[in-house]
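[job 0412] stage=complex_fold ligand=zinc ion status=START
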Amino acid sequence: MAEERVAEERDETEERKPEETRPGSERIQLPSRGFRYEGRLPDGYVMVAPMTTREEALLVSMGGDRLDLLNRVLDACLLTRAVPLTEFLSGDRLFLLLSVRQITYGSSYHVQFPCPTCRGSISLSLDIPKDLSVRVLTEEDDEPFEVKLPVSGHTLGLRLLRVSDEAAILRYASRKAPALGGPNLGYLYTMARYIVTIDGQEVDSIKALRLVEGLVGKDSLAIRQTIETHDCGPDFTIETACNQCMAQVREVLPLTVEFFRPKPESTS
Ligand SMILES: [Zn+2]
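[job 0412] stage=complex_fold status=DONE, emitting structure tokens
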């Protein structure tokens, strides 16, 4: 099954026309600013094409894993081929996702979600990606980032996640489906994938996982904070006020059906 899919993907790559432009394509600047790609994407600029009906058809396809489908769509819209999508930083991938949406349907995105205080409906019209804050990388964000864990005393070298890590995390979590009420293995394994060295020694993710499993909360918090300080990409947190109870609301922007299938009147 996995082999079949690889063969399919290869066919798609061969079909790909070499030119870096298609009607409606736009040049965007990735939040990494190209810093993690050894000069292959100067300043992080890539050409992005709008989705065609073929990619829309992939999105509405019922079978297969959602992340894989979405990545195939992004890969088809990514015209600059200097860095394969699997090597993209997760933050760049998220920004690419927003850009493909904007280039294909326009930037207006309408969301509705319940107010956590009064349960009334909050509806927002956003300009995507402009209304989201985006952290960009600088030269100072050089990998690995060191963190000394406050309780265990270990010094860890950390790196940012790539698209290939996200796929590995999903595979790991689904292979080892936890018993009901068991630990979230995806969460543990995500923490492990950040770690490249323990006290100066290079480790693989299995060794890192063994360390992560035993860490106390203060130590894992230190890891997450260090990653957050150095990570790049759009922040999906939105702040608004509820029209009915006036409460300040902080929510993670939901990506609803309308994100990739906007109603005709909501395009701009
Ligand atoms: Zn409210």
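DSSP finds nine helices and twelve strands in the chain.
[job 0412] exit 0
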